[in-house]
Specification:
Elements (H helix, E strand, L loop, with lengths): L1 H23 L4 H13 L2 H12 L4 H7 L9 H25 L3 H9 L4 H12 L1 H17 L2 H6 L10 H10 L3 H36 L1
Helix pairs in contact: 1-5, 1-8, 2-5, 5-8, 6-7, 8-11, 10-11
């Protein structure tokens, strides 16, 4: 829960910033969009391998972080990074889709009135896109909760330190403890299923409110 929650906070901020950037771009949008969506397409183990190369002790970033006593590999920080990277595309794509539903004439009018891009984001993009943003946040959290491949590549499987619920299910099955595996599966389903139901109800309610507002 700690890892998924921290990863969702990071993904929430970066996803909104990335969606706002891509929506405003006029050139190179397709290339940036592809890069931001790539973790959703690649196998999680491949994403984990890339993260291992980036944050490994022999890499530039890994050596730099070691100067401050920060180790990403085989730590809970690595589990957060892996969950955030894998869940990021869901937050980004959902938020971008919500932003693209906003009438651009409102944005042009705000710019004509001298609004800064940050003020436009806070006063127009976010208020008019909140159903999609909430949906993206829920999807990102649910994906972070279920992350396995990238996490086990970067953070490993250290009980009480980097072992997430998804990895705990795998470990229980490997050990032949089906009862423990069922317990973890029930907990995961008990968290994610109500969240997905809430998201569906939220989107339906938000859509009706927007229609009435229009």
């Amino acid at each position: 829960m700690k890892i998924a929650s921290l990863a969702t906070v990071i993904t929430f901020i970066l996803g909104i910033a990335a969606a706002n950037l891509v929506v405003r771009l006029k050139k190179g949008k397709e290339v940036i969009d592809t890069l931001f969506t790539l973790p959703l397409i690649l196998p999680p183990t491949v994403v984990g391998f890339f993260l291992l190369v980036i944050f490994g002790k022999n890499s530039f970033i890994g050596n730099f972080l070691n100067l401050f006593g920060i180790s990403v590999v085989f730590s809970w920080i690595g589990a957060v990074v892996a969950a955030a990277v894998v869940s990021f595309p869901l937050m980004y794509r959902t938020t971008r889709g919500a932003f693209e539903q906003v009438d651009m004439n409102i944005i042009y009018a705000a710019r004509t009135l001298g609004f800064s891009e940050w003020k436009i984001l806070a006063k127009i993009w976010l208020p008019l896109s909140w159903p999609g943003i909430i949906a993206g946040t829920i999807l990102a959290f649910a994906r972070a909760m279920g992350e396995f491949g990238a996490t086990i590549m970067l953070a490993g499987n250290i009980p009480g330190r980097t072992q997430t619920m998804a990895i705990a299910v795998y470990s229980a099955v490997q050990a032949g403890d089906r009862a423990l595996a069922y317990q973890w599966v029930l907990i995961l389903c008990g968290i994610t299923l109500p969240l997905m139901l809430f998201m569906s109800l939220w989107l339906s309610k938000g859509s009706n409110i927007i229609k009435r507002w229009k």
